[in-house]
């Protein structure tokens, strides 16, 4: 994983000629180099997170840091960076936790470190956010807590995993029926 300091002058993205497109301090980031499909949105905005709240500036900065860590940490299966479409979904999670922390007058790192605070968030979060948060925690759990700036405890991960599992088991998905077995059953019934 990459170490991410909260250096405002850190280049976050460059264009195809290597010229800087986005700096950490910007609230609009552009990742045109990572747009592999016409449906990929290369723009990431943190502007919607900025509001008058006690810890907002710190919370937005941590969201930016988490975004960078998540984007440039290799996926466990492919070893490649995460696609922009996945990062847009992750951005929705970062936005949700930042807004919740701001509303509760919490520092975002206190929300993520405390199983009690996180449970309050998870109890209100949609299933999709909980599932993505589980994936994000899996990535963050591999980062040295000193580099991360806080520690995600085992109880926090456990709560997130169990809630994600619970939401998966209560999903309204219908099972996929194999066509081959359907044909076998229909030919078996016609012989009766």
Descriptors for this entry?
mainly alpha; two-stranded antiparallel sheet; 4 strands; 52% helix; globular
Would you summarize the structure shown here?
The protein has 192 residues and is mostly helical. Helices cover 52% and strands 7% of the residues.
Structural features, described:
This protein is mostly helical. It has 8 helices and 4 strands; from the N terminus they run ββββαααααααα. The protein has helices at residues 56-72, 84-103, 108-113, 115-124, 127-140, 145-148, 154-169, 179-190, and strands spanning 11-14, 20-23, 28-30, 43-45. It has a two-stranded antiparallel sheet. A two-stranded antiparallel ribbon has the order 3-4. A hairpin with a 5-residue loop joins strand 1 (11-14) and strand 2 (20-23). The longest helix has 20 residues, at 84-103. The protein is globular and about 45 Å long. The N and C termini lie far apart (62 Å). The model has no long low-confidence stretch (mean pLDDT 85).
Strand order of the largest sheet: 1-2
Rg measurement, Å: 20 Å
Q: Briefly note the structural class of the backbone.
A: mainly alpha
Largest sheet, if any? Answer: 2 strands, antiparallel
Strand share of the residues?
Answer: 5-15%
What's the helix count? 8
In the predicted model, the low-confidence regions spanning at least 5 consecutive residues are none
Morphology: globular
Summarize the amount of helix as a percent range: 40-55%
Arithmetic mean pLDDT: 85
Count of β-strands: 4
Q: How far do the termini sit from each other?
A: 62 Å
| Secondary-structure element order, N to C | EEEEHHHHHHHH
């Amino acid at each position: 994983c990459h170490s991410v300091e909260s250096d405002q002058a850190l280049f976050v993205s460059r264009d195809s000629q290597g010229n800087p497109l986005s700096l950490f301090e910007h609230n609009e980031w552009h990742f045109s180099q990572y747009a592999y499909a016409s449906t990929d949105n290369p723009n990431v905005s943190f502007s919607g997170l900025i509001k008058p709240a006690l810890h907002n500036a710190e919370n937005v900065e941590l969201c930016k840091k988490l975004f960078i860590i998540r984007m440039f940490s290799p996926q466990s299966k492919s070893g490649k960076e995460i696609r922009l479409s996945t990062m847009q979904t992750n951005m929705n999670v970062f936005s949700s936790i930042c807004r919740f922390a701001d509303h509760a007058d919490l520092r975002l790192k206190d929300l993520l470190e405390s199983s009690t605070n996180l449970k309050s968030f998870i109890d209100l979060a949609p299933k999709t956010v909980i599932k993505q948060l589980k994936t994000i925690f899996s990535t963050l759990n591999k980062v040295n807590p000193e580099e991360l700036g806080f520690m995600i405890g085992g109880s926090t991960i456990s709560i997130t995993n169990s809630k994600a599992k619970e939401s998966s088991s209560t999903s309204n998905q219908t099972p996929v029926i194999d066509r081959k077995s359907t044909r076998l059953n229909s030919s078996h019934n016609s012989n009766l």
